[in-house]
Specification:
Mean pLDDT: 81
Low-confidence stretches: 10-20, 178-188, 305-317
Number of strands: 14
Radius of gyration: 25 Å
Helix content: 40-55%
Largest sheet: 6 strands, antiparallel
Number of helices: 8
Distance between the termini: 53 Å
Structural class: alpha+beta
């Protein structure tokens, strides 16, 4: 009788778990998958889940490979019979011809009464962008040359002021680098149940939305960006990156046997941030946005295994 009771309890547990899982479904759809370059498409993300559970929405970057995300709607919800439907819409396009894939989006959710969080993945989406046919019977036209703007004395004053500034603060930078003890970072708060790559993506999205470098807060932008990257490396690759300088972090990535292209991405972000912090370089807007894109790419290529299924979108393509 005792063995029968155990079998019945196990059956009820697995049956209830399967029914609960069936109440949660994630879906990504698109209105068409064969268009011309530059055409705009509507991507729809939907998640069905019980109303009483917490859901972490996936972070969607500005671009995935050659596919550009132009606009996004707020997340809206509707409830029916205890089930909540979450929806979000995106306008996407590409200006490069070819066949591309949008990797699965990962939603994280809680099960009532359980401490862990669980993933719900959408299916990948494949899109083909075709070129516009070219009429070869018509003659080619020359490209209009770029307009030239003459230099003024103000252009040279910027370089002079920068050189003088570097000389004046050179001794202070030398003292800071070699004699002043490096201050420890304050411990960053995070939910340990949320995987490192999802927490880092959410932090990058928040930083991007604050538009710090666009409002001339360039140093603050690079400090925040490197803190997010260092915390992700510390949690994901598991060495104390928050307490290390750039060269030590790169050496740690090398010992972790990361591919050279990933080490170069991290080096690019960290070294530019060091130059900005110590007033050795004032980055161009393209360099700021490039650092943000490199951070997204580094995290995308080091996404961990979840429940034994590889979730790295770069490797699925």
């Amino acid at each position: 009788m005792k063995e029968k009771a155990i079998i019945i309890i196990l059956f009820l547990f697995f049956f209830s778990n399967k029914v609960y899982t069936q109440n949660i479904s994630a879906r990504a759809t698109i209105d068409t998958n064969n268009v011309l370059i530059g055409d705009q498409l509507l991507l729809k993300l939907e998640l069905k889940a019980p109303r009483d559970i917490r859901v972490v929405w996936p972070v969607v970057p500005d671009s995935i490979g050659k596919i550009i995300f132009i606009a996004a709607t707020p997340i809206d919800t509707s409830d029916t019979n205890g089930i909540r439907l979450y929806r979000q819409r995106f306008v996407i396009t590409s200006f490069d011809s070819g066949s591309y894939s949008i990797p699965p989006f990962t939603f994280m959710y809680e099960r009532k009464g359980l401490p862990d969080m669980y993933p719900a993945n959408t299916d990948p989406i494949f899109i083909k962008f075709a070129t516009v046919p070219v009429d070869t019977t018509k003659p080619f036209k020359d490209i209009k040359p770029p307009a030239e703007e003459p230099n003024t004395w103000l252009d040279y004053w910027e370089y002079i002021a920068l050189a003088l500034g570097l000389v004046i603060i050179g001794d202070a930078i030398y003292f800071y680098l070699f004699y002043k003890k490096r201050k420890k970072h304050d411990e960053l708060g995070y939910d340990p149940r949320i995987p490192p790559h999802i927490a880092a993506m959410e932090a990058l999205k928040k930083l991007d939305n604050e538009k710090l470098w666009q409002n001339n807060m360039i140093k603050e932008f690079h400090v925040r960006l490197t803190e997010i990257l260092r915390l992700y490396i510390e949690r994901q690759i598991q060495f104390p990156a928050l307490e290390m300088v750039t060269d030590e972090i790169i050496d740690g990535l090398r010992k972790a046997m990361l591919p050279p292209d990933l080490m170069n991405l991290a080096r690019k972000i960290l070294e530019l941030a060091d130059l900005v912090k110590f007033a050795k370089h004032e980055p161009l807007p393209d360099e700021n946005s490039s650092s943000m894109a490199a951070a997204y790419q580094f995290i995308n290529k080091t996404i961990p295994l979840i429940n034994g299924n590889e979730t790295n979108p770069e490797e699925k393509q």
